[in-house]
Specification:
Helices cover 45% and strands 18% of the residues. By secondary structure, it is of the alpha/beta class. The two termini are 20 Å apart.
Length: 180
C-alpha cells in the first residue's frame, strides 16, 4: 500500500520564488522515496509540491473543492494525476488531514494554519492515530514556540511531542526517512 504524505502550504508562491522551489524540491524528494504526495491541488506550494513529485515520477493526488473553485475560479493544477473532489472546504480539509500517513507543513496562510491545527488537535485527542506532523521553517518555529510558551498551562504533557519542527526541507525529509 502506498504511503501518502499531505503537503500543506500557501497558494501565493510563484514559480521561481524560493518558497515555490523549496516546495518543488520537497515534492521531488518525497516521490523519490516512494511517497504519494497529496496537496490541496491548486497553486503555490500545492502546485510546486505536485510538480516536483510528478517530475520525479511520483503519484500526485489533488484534494480539491467545488466551493473554492467557485469562490476563486480555480481548477486543479496540471501536475495532479488523481483528483479527489469534495463539495465543501470542511470535507476537503478533513480528507487531507485524515487520509495521510504523514503531513508536512510549509509556510502559508489561514488555510495552512487550519490544516496544522486540525491535524494536531485530532492527534492530541486521539481521534487520529499519531503520525509525523512536520512543520518546516522559521515561521512555524516562531509560531509554535510562542504558542507553547503562552499557552503552557492549557497544554497536556506530550502535546508538543506530536509536532516536529524542521529548519528546512532537507531536515523534514530526513525526519520522515528516519521515522519519529
Amino acid at each position: 500500500m502506498a504511503r501518502i504524505v499531505s503537503v500543506y502550504g500557501g497558494s501565493a508562491p510563484r514559480p521561481g520564488s524560493p518558497a515555490y522551489e523549496d516546495a518543488r524540491a520537497l515534492g521531488e524528494a518525497l516521490a523519490k522515496r516512494n511517497w504519494t504526495v497529496a496537496t490541496g491541488g491548486y497553486s503555490g506550494v500545492m502546485e510546486a509540491a505536485s510538480r516536483g513529485a510528478f517530475e520525479a515520477g511520483g503519484h500526485v493526488v489533488g484534494v480539491t473543492c467545488t466551493l473554492i473553485e467557485d469562490w476563486r475560479s480555480l481548477r486543479a493544477n496540471a501536475w495532479v494525476r488523481e483528483e479527489q473532489r469534495f463539495a465543501t472546504l470542511r470535507e476537503r480539509l478533513y480528507h487531507l488531514v485524515e487520509f495521510c500517513d504523514a503531513a508536512v507543513a510549509l509556510p502559508g496562510g489561514i488555510g495552512t494554519l487550519s490544516e496544522v491545527a486540525l491535524t494536531w488537535s485530532l492527534m492530541q485527542t486521539r481521534e487520529l492515530k499519531a503520525k509525523p506532523l512536520v512543520l518546516v521553517g522559521q515561521v512555524w518555529a516562531q509560531t509554535v514556540t510562542t504558542f507553547m510558551r503562552e499557552a503552557a498551562s492549557y497544554l497536556h504533557p506530550g502535546d508538543s511531542g506530536l509536532l516536529y519542527l524542521a529548519a528546512d526541507i532537507d531536515e523534514a525529509v530526513r525526519y520522515l526517512d528516519d521515522g519519529p
